[in-house]
Amino acid sequence: MKFNLYLTPAAKATLKEIKDDAGLKKRYKAVSKALRFLSENPRHPGLRTKPYLSLSGPKNEKVFEAYAEQNTPAAYRIFFYYGPTEREIIISTITSHP
């Protein structure tokens, strides 16, 4: 079963920013693919999903980190938590890894 993905305004803005930047076309493709995997199976091996202990959701939800890219300088990561109802994932942040 698929999950419905909901992006916060900050995540939407980042996604739009990398989509609109021709120099980040490859990154946008990687993030889009990771979001597709996330909606199909949050435990997909390519995402390398793991709990991210230093963050929590707005209602103290457990936050997870998923890889959009690997072995790449400033690789993009997706931070998410499970929504208020079943089969929902809230994408809180899409960001490059420091």
Please describe the structure with a list of short key phrases separated by commas or semicolons:
98 residues, five-stranded mixed sheet, 29% helix, globular
Describe the fold and architecture.
By secondary structure, the protein is an alpha+beta fold. The protein has a domain at 46-86. It has helices spanning 9-20, 25-40; strands at 4-7, 50-56, 62-67, 76-82, 88-96. It has a five-stranded mixed beta sheet with strand order 1-5-4-3-2. The mean pLDDT is 93.
Strand coverage percent: 25-35%
List how many beta strands DSSP finds: 5
Low-confidence segments, ≥5 residues, pLDDT <50?
Answer: none
Strand order of the largest sheet: 1-5-4-3-2
Q: Could you give the distance between the termini?
A: 33 Å
What is the residue-mean pLDDT, rounded to a whole number? 93
> If you compute it from the alpha carbons, what radius of gyration comes out, rounded to the nearest whole angstrom?
13 Å
Biggest β-sheet strands, sense, barrel = 5 strands, mixed
- Kindly state the percentage of residues in helix: 25-40%
Continuous helix count: 2
Element order: H for helix, E for strand: EHHEEEE
| Cα shape | globular
Class computed from helices, strands and strand pairing:
alpha+beta
The quaternary state of the protein chains shown equals single chain
